[in-house]
Structures are given as structure tokens and as C-alpha cells.
Amino acid sequence: MAQIAPFRALRFTEQAGEISELCCPPYDIISEDERLAYLSKNEHNIIRLELPREGDNPYAEAGRTLRRWLANGILADDDEPAYYIYSQQFTVQGKVYALKGIIARVHIEEFERGIVLPHEETLSKAKADRFSLMDATMCNFSQIYSLYHDDGNVTELLIDSLTDCQPAQQFTDGAGVTHSLWAVKDKTAAATITAQFADRRLFIADGHHRYETALNFRNHLRGTGRASVGDECDWCMMMLVSLENKGLVVLPTHRIVHGLDNFDEQKLISACREHFDCVHYGDMSAMSGLLDQSRKHGQRSFALCCGDGFTLMTLRDTDAMDSAMPQASDALRRLDVSILHTLVLETALGIDRENMANQINLSYTRDAAEAIAAVDSGDANCCFIINPTGVDEISAVAAAGEKMPQKSTYFYPKLITGLVMNKFGQ
């Protein structure tokens, strides 16, 4: 099953500056203004490598920058292999959470082998971008986020024992998330961690594009004679977190529908009544509580907002999904996002999957207020506010060898980029 290994991480040295000024959130949620702001605080911020924009060929410039930082001592390899335990402490809706996981090298496996499993569809444009950066730098600057089952919490208990000391690095970011890092270089502890994963499968939570790119790039290097089986490009960097971890938080990603000609709210609701109970509410403040109550009762509901209150849409029975997705597993058919995409967006509104993938008439946000504001301003026809996908649902879909619609999950908070990097070639 999963092969993991300690590694000599590439890390910022004291010469680079304060670690809080060198790290940043994932590249795909950073605006250009934010990118420039990070660089204005410290020119060595990892965003210069992870999201290059300078020069005629930004990818080649990132490669040159990496080599320069290595030569100047801004970045350096750790002196010996280690597993890196990474912790996040954060608050959501007034509740404090703590999450710990292991950053490791993981052997790259084709999805068909059933060892590393995806749960979401990906976009080709994002994979092409990451491929070009990997080709220019031969480095993973950010870790893929993956989950595993930890029967008996044996790994969680070991992680707790290994972090009963001061972290090697720690800082709190602008969003109030405290990031901590420990380097586990003890060979006995490392061997125990490696052995514990030998019979486990890994479920990708975040970073599907980067994993598929790592797989494609490994094959590219082999095909062009630049690498052989057993080389370092056979491995990629991952953050491994237990599915049983109490700190796992998944936020919903809401759907915004825009650019549809002749959109008619009443015609949409009328078409949906075939499969849904549709109840209109004029008080928007009731929406969150109704959605939460529906989720607790095991119902499949989401809210349609068209500018005048909202309509709570609740699936009456599952027969409609059995007919619409006969080849899918129960796990995939029962997801709120599957129901919304299949019975409403595709069937009632005529937005096909290619349209969704290219975001022609559909866009996404995790901010419900932003989605509703788009409708109120006239920029959108309507929006759908949905409940979060459960962690157990994510693993069930992945275990069935299937993929959810794009943007079905939003793990919060995002893993920080820049604490550790994985250099796998010259």
C-alpha cells in the first residue's frame, strides 16, 4: 500500500528573514495585489517561486531564482532526513480547533492501483501551469493534502508524543491561524511512522492538480530519458492527516449561476418540484439554521437565492438520483453537490458538465454573502447556498473509485506554503 519516507526538506535559513514573512497561502487563492504585498514585506517570500510572474518566461525565472537562493544560502537542505509534523490552530465560528499531520515524501502511484485516491475532478489549465513550474524548478514548493484512516489512533498518539516539546518554527498569520513545525529525525520514530502506513490508502483532500502533475511529470522524465525508475521524481511531498482527527474542518463551496438568457425563477422552481419540496422564505437570516437542521436530519437540501428571500429545496426521495446516475455508487449519488449538479444545474437549467468545467455559466465561492451579493447586484441569475460535504462522504466516494464534481470541498484552513519544500532533481 502507501509508501512514505522521511526526506531532507529544503527550508528557509535565518538569512532569508522572519518565517512569518516568507510563507503564504496556496498560490491558487492569492490575488495579484496580495502577491505583490507579500513580496513588498520580504523579497524572499515563497510566492516568488510558487507563483512566478516576473520576466518574459516566469517559470524559467523561478528556476533561476531558486538556484540563486540556494547558492546565496537563502534556502538550504536539512542536514539529515526527517518527518515534519505540522500543526494548525485556528477558530471557526467561535470554536477553537487544532490539527496535526505528517509532512512526508509519498511514492507516486497511478490512481488505478487504489493506493492514492482522488475525490474531485481537475482542470487542464491548472495542471499545465504546475507542470511548467515543476519542469523549471524540479521542486515541490507546497504539499498535497491527503487523509488516511488511523485505526486505534496509533499514529495520532505517536504524533502527540513527538510534539510534546517546543516547535522548531512557529508563527501566527494574518488570518489568526497559528502554524507550528517539528522535525522528527529520530530513526526509530521515523521507522515506526513508515511502518504504520504500509497497509494504508491515502485520500487526496486538496492538491489534485499537483498530484496528477507529479504523476505526469514523472512519466515525462522517464519517457525523455531524464529519469529512471527509483529516482527522486518517483516521490512527491504530502501532508498526511488522520480522517479521525477532530481538527478537520470542511467548508461548503456555493454555486453562482450567471449569463443565462431568459432565466425565470418560477419556471426553475416549477421544474424542480418533480423531485424536490420547495418552500420559500422571505427572511434570509433563517437560511443557515434551516440548512443546518436539514443536514442533521439526514436530508438533502440547498437554498436557491434569486433576490427575494430564498427557496429551501429538499430532495423527496433518492429514486431520481438512482435513475439519473445508475452507474454511480450510492456514496456519489447521495452527495448534495451531485444532486444539485445533476437534477438542477444540468437537468433543469441545461448547464452541461463541460460548461461547468469551463465556468461559462457557473462560478464558485465559499462566501455565501458574496454569492448573494452577486445576485442582488444583477451580476448573477441566482445562486445556490449548500451544506459542507462530510469527511466520511469524501472518503466513501474516493474508496469507490469515483470523483465528485469540481469544488465539492474546501478544507479549512489551507496548508501554509513555505515551511518545507521537496527538491527532487538538479
Write structural notes for this entry.
With 426 residues, the protein is of the alpha+beta class. It has helices at 32-41, 47-50, 58-72, 124-137, 154-162, 187-196, 208-223, 265-272, 287-296, 319-324, 330-333, 336-346, 353-357, 368-376, 391-399, and strands at 4-5, 10-12, 75-77, 83-92, 95-107, 116-117, 139-140, 144-148, 169-172, 178-184, 202-206, 235-242, 249-251, 254-257, 276-281, 301-305, 310-315, 362-365, 382-386, 410-412, 422-423.
Task: Pick out its properties.
426 residues; single chain; 15 helices; 24% strand; 9-stranded mixed sheet; alpha+beta
Note the overall shape.
globular
Largest sheet: 9 strands, mixed
Q: In which range does the helix fraction lie?
A: 25-40%
Unreliable parts: none
- Label the structural class: alpha+beta
- Radius of gyration from the CA trace? 23 Å
What percent strand? 15-25%
Distance between the termini: 29 Å
> Kindly state the mean pLDDT as a whole number?
94
By DSSP, the count of extended strands is 21
Task: Figure out the total of helices.
Answer: 15
